[in-house]
């Protein structure tokens, strides 16, 4: 009985394989056409090994005075990374307004300091500039819209056309009309950066071009707290203020004029060239490629 069952199963297997023969022939013929069109007419079927890194991006960055490469973090689990005011700062409630840190941190820069640091968190600086290294062009665009027509736009682009050459730019716009008269802020910051490293990894050059335009209006606070409970002042921009009060005022996200307040502008061009001295070495990758190394003393 077992022999008979085995014979019947074997018979059905042969029938199944025979029925699939036309399909297999079509698949084999199609693969042969693809192979022949790619590398000429051949009688064998070839398969291309898949490269898992081909569709992925590897991006790291380092700061100007650092040699440590830091992986780029694009996660959104912490909004503190994207909002302009850190959670450890106290500010006047309007994005772009004056702010100061709740955690004391001494000013460690040498030399005389004028003390104008109320808008430092909105400025691009040389110390916070990043130089990226990526295997393909990378762009990041962020747009935030809040109550009171408050808006913030951030843009980042970087690329490495060659392994030893990289460049990109940063841009940020903060526009907040505010809820009261002459409370509007309008900050614009941009940064262009680039770096180059010699073939033997000894010579290096860095370039940073950045600029900041800080515009912040001040109204000195409202004239009376009772105005907040007055039904005639349901629109907060009609509440009388101490400085720059206007009879006909409508909040405008594109208005950048400052009646009473602060206007700061700065522009910086930074160029650095370095040459490392140390023990040189090299690793032969193949007959035509050599990777140069050096060890600092």
Question: Can you describe what's shown?
Answer:
With about 300 residues, the chain is mainly beta. It contains one helix and 13 strands, in the order αβββββββββββββ. It has one helix spanning about 1-40, and strands at about 60-65, 70, 90, 100, 130-135, 140-145, 150-160, 165-175, 185-195, 205-215, 260-275, 280-285, 290-295. The relative contact order is 0.11.
In short:
This protein is mainly beta. 13% of the residues lie in helices and 37% in strands. It contains 1 helix and 13 strands; from the N terminus they run αβββββββββββββ.
Percentage of residues in DSSP E strands = 35-45%
Largest sheet: 6 strands, antiparallel
* Lateral arrangement of strands in the main beta sheet: 6-7-8-9-10-11
Uncertain stretches: 14-27
Q: What best-fitting shape do the alpha-carbon axes yield? A: elongated
Helix count equals 1
Instruction: Tell me the structural class.
Output: mainly beta
Q: Spell out the helices and strands N to C.
A: HEEEEEEEEEEEEE
Produce the secondary structure layout.
Blueprint: H1 2-39, E1 59-63, E2 70-71, E3 89-91, E4 99-101, E5 130-134, E6 138-146, E7 150-162, E8 165-176, E9 185-197, E10 203-217, E11 261-275, E12 278-284, E13 290-296
Antiparallel strand pairs: 1-2, 1-5, 3-4, 6-7, 7-8, 8-9, 9-10, 10-11, 12-13
